[in-house]
Amino acid sequence: MLNTLTNRVNESVFNALYARSLIYNTCWEDPAVDRQALNINGDDTILVITSAGCNALDYALAGPRRVHAVDANPRQTALLELKLAGIRHLEFEDFFALFGQGRHPRFEELYRDTLRRDLSPFAQQFWDDAGQWFNRRNPRNTFYFHSLSGRVAVLFRHYVDLQPQLRCAVDDLVDAKSLDQQREIYDSRIAPRMWGPSMNWALSRQITMSMLGVPAPQHDEVRKQHTGGVPGFVRDAIEYVFRCLPLWSNYFWRVYVRGAYTRDCCPEYLKPDNFLALKTGLADRITHHTCTVTEMLQGVRPRISKFVLLDHMDWLGSFRPDALREEWAALLECAAPGARTIFRSAHAQPAYLDTLTVPGTGRNRNLRELLSFHPELATRLTQADRVHTYAGFHIADIRS
């Protein structure tokens, strides 16, 4: 009874945050890994959950026929709309100031005179209020320190600032020029100072995870499978990133330390040649939808060859298994022959793969039966994943 009540409270808190907030101001999945897994070509039609829209733009650069960006949170769609409007109407320097540096001294003018007319009514209403996030002249108060995930980055920044030696070490780590230098800085100057009781306490709180878009079921999955619980999992993930992967090209973590990208370390859509390619036609291949995946598939009924489902099946499978079952029924109906799906999970082998049954011809089948997995490819790509915060990365073809 207590667990049921706790689950209901956690679900209500998560839903309340989701329904009122922009959760993600940047995508937290590595599209370089995704592109290798998907092998996108000119015949592909891709479905991706929008999140912050960065990866929808990245996939469009690979030249597919169409990218359908789908998100039930209209604020995430509003962010993608603003990026698309900026690509259509702004010069590169203004666009990079907005989404690279996270601030522009003339945002109000650009928004009022150029961008606003291209947005949907909801996006206009949202950015009428939230546009102030780009107005800040202080580099410590950029767009990337707003939204729920941005607020967590602010809290981390305050935690680091309270320890001057740790602040200096983090700055040196971000500026390191070799993996050996990164490891030395992390091992000797960061790890001993960062993983104290207050950090462990904060990472153990569900409210912290909810602000990062991690619902209670994912939190529980991590806690159960890692001996150190959620703090231990996060520590292992950060240690792998900071010790084993070059930070000078890891824009995911750098943006939350510095609050901005650089010209050399940023998502692909923020590079001049790619921006031009998007402006001259590739961005027009993106269609955005504010609805659930099921609603989009049942409405438009496109023939999808590549599905990018992120990690939403973790919480949908726990909170609303019937909705996940309905989603997969719609997905199978719209899947092109040989369609590939990629998804992430808080668990290396999520339970819903074996427990979820999907209606089929003649009988119901569990989800794992419907998919042909590529575990060796997934394992190899996981090692290169610059985010590295998911226990499971799955690549699977949908069986005919």
Secondary structure elements and their pairing?
Layout: H1 2-20, H2 31-38, E1 45-49, H3 54-60, E2 66-71, H4 74-89, H5 92-99, H6 107-115, H7 121-130, H8 147-161, H9 164-174, H10 179-194, H11 197-204, H12 206-211, H13 216-225, H14 229-244, H15 251-258, H16 272-279, E3 286-290, H17 293-300, E4 304-308, H18 312-319, H19 321-334, E5 335-345, H20 352-355, E6 357-358, E7 365-366, E8 371-373, H21 375-384, E9 392-398
Parallel strand pairs: 1-2, 1-4, 2-3, 4-5
Antiparallel strand pairs: 5-9, 6-7, 8-9
Helix pairs in contact: 4-7, 9-10, 10-14, 11-14, 17-19, 18-19
Could you please describe the fold and organization of this structure?
- The longest helix is centred in the N-terminal third of the chain and has 19 residues, at 2-20.
- The chain has 400 residues and is of the alpha/beta class.
- The chain starts with a helix and ends with a strand.
- The protein has a domain at 162-251.
- A hairpin with a 6-residue loop joins strand 6 and strand 7 (365-366).
- The protein has 21 helices and nine strands.
- The strands form two sheets. Strands 3-2-1-4-5-9-8 form a seven-stranded mixed β-sheet, with helices on both faces.
- Helix content is 55%, strand content 12%.
- It has helices spanning 2-20, 31-38, 54-60, 74-89, 92-99, 107-115, 121-130, 147-161, 164-174, 179-194, 197-204, 206-211, 216-225, 229-244, 251-258, 272-279, 293-300, 312-319, 321-334, 352-355, 375-384, and strands at residues 45-49, 66-71, 286-290, 304-308, 335-345, 357-358, 365-366, 371-373, 392-398.
- The relative contact order is 0.14.
- Helix 10 packs antiparallel against helix 14 (229-244).
